[in-house]
Design brief:
Number of helices: 3
Distance between the termini: 32 Å
Shape: globular
Radius of gyration: 12 Å
Number of strands: 0
Helix content: 40-55%
Length: 71
């Protein structure tokens, strides 16, 4: 399975790219982020026939956005 986006942008556009990956508005809550990650993990996790590299990007985006999310 492929992620629905091209090559991830780096640098200043990282947060924007991660928000696009998770389809998030500027205000995010941890519960929304966790819910969206779970949905994507079901689709892209290698154990369910997905791509390991895609799951790595999903996890990286999750950790980055989680550090900026509100409770």
């Amino acid at each position: 399975a492929r992620l629905p986006f091209g090559q991830m942008e780096l640098g200043a556009a990282r947060e924007h790219a991660y928000r696009n990956l998770y389809s998030l508005d500027y205000i995010i809550e941890r519960k929304d982020l966790a819910r969206k990650r779970k949905i994507m993990a079901k689709k892209f996790h290698p154990d369910t026939g997905g791509d390991g590299k895609a799951m790595t990007v999903i996890n990286e985006a999750y950790e980055y956005l989680l550090s900026r999310a509100s409770a």
